[in-house]
């Protein structure tokens, strides 16, 4: 297993400087955003139409001795606003094509969330089965919007030698292992997950136990932590809509790895991933509102490099 970085946290730096910086942490793997929510600071989809730019990009990556773990285009391809869904879908399509040209086998996206009808203007995330009209909305979403899009898109990805790693995220139709496996059963093995344990913690899902549920559906892994605040949870519950920067009053916030859970937890997480066949990248994602990107990257890299070293098969026996 190796450590990588999802580079939007360093979006103010050009890619060459990002690669130089990451090598100081003994990191040689990057996950690059191509548009939608992550932006495209380090990977421009315009390279699809510019072979010289594509060659320069490949040369830069190779010159610095890096590998790309995934191209990420987290968006809402099912948004009820046709302009927004079309834009997100087109970025997804181009990301698949660019991944093929780069020899990258995974892209990362969200499942998306439709509205409650063809006339809707905004997404409608259903979180409970009652009153009964909510189940009607959910059935319509999956039957009429989710299934047609993802069956077609999974086939398109597979035809180009690419797999789609869906990040399970509340607010979208795929937010849990159960909903991820539902989509995979519909769209086929080209659909799996980008596994971010931070999104499991605050839903009350044990991220290590969930690895056993997901198994070989795990295509890519984000390294991000969550800290729960028991003093606030009786008031807020886990469905807390306050801004992430209102840390004092939230029931939970995202943290840099090691600030929500310690080394013993992360060692077991890495070991269980390997036990169930995942031995790829842990891609650091920074969303800790209490630490700057520089602090978050430094502390996560130092923390996880130690974890991966101690959990790597064949490491020195005295470690």
TrEMBL record:
Keywords: Isomerase. InterPro entries: IolE/XylAMocC-like, Xyl_isomerase-like_sf, Xyl_isomerase-like_TIM-brl. Gene3D superfamilies: Divalent-metal-dependent TIM barrel enzymes. Residues 23-306 form the Xylose isomerase-like TIM barrel domain. GO terms for molecular function: isomerase activity. It holds the Pfam family AP_endonuc_2. PANTHER family: HYDROXYPYRUVATE ISOMERASE, XYLOSE ISOMERASE-LIKE TIM BARREL DOMAIN-CONTAINING PROTEIN. This is Sugar phosphate isomerase/epimerase family protein. It comes from Acidicapsa dinghuensis.
């Amino acid at each position: 297993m190796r450590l990588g970085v999802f580079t939007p946290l360093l979006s103010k730096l050009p890619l060459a400087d990002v690669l130089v910086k990451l090598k100081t942490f003994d990191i040689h793997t990057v996950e690059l955003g191509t548009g939608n929510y992550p932006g495209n600071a380090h990977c421009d989809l315009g390279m699809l139409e510019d072979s010289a730019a594509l060659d320069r990009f490949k040369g830069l990556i190779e010159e610095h001795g890096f590998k790309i773990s995934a191209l990420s285009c987290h968006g809402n391809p099912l948004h009820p606003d046709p302009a927004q869904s079309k834009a997100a879908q087109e970025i997804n399509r181009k990301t698949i094509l660019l991944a093929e040209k780069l020899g990258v086998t995974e892209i990362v996206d969200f499942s998306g969330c439709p509205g409650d009808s063809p006339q809707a203007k905004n997404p409608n995330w259903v979180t409970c089965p009652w009153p009964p009209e909510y189940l009607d909305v959910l059935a319509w979403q999956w039957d009429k919007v989710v299934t047609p899009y993802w069956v077609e898109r999974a086939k398109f990805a597979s035809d180009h030698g690419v797999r789609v790693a869906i990040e399970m995220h509340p607010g979208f139709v795929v937010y849990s292992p159960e909903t991820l496996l539902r989509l995979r059963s519909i769209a086929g093995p080209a659909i799996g997950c980008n596994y971010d344990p931070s999104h499991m913690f605050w839903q009350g899902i044990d991220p290590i136990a969930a690895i056993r549920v997901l198994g070989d559906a795990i295509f890519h892994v984000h390294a991000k932590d969550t800290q729960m605040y028991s003093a606030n949870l009786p008031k807020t519950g886990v469905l807390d809509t306050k801004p992430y920067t209102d840390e004092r009053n939230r029931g939970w916030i995202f943290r840099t790895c090691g600030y929500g859970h310690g080394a013993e937890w992360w060692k077991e997480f890495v070991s269980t991933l390997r036990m169930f066949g995942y031995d790829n990248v842990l891609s650091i994602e920074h969303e800790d509102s209490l630490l700057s990107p520089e602090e978050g990257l430094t502390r996560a890299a130092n923390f996880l490099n130690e974890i991966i070293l101690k959990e790597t098969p064949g490491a020195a026996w005295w470690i």
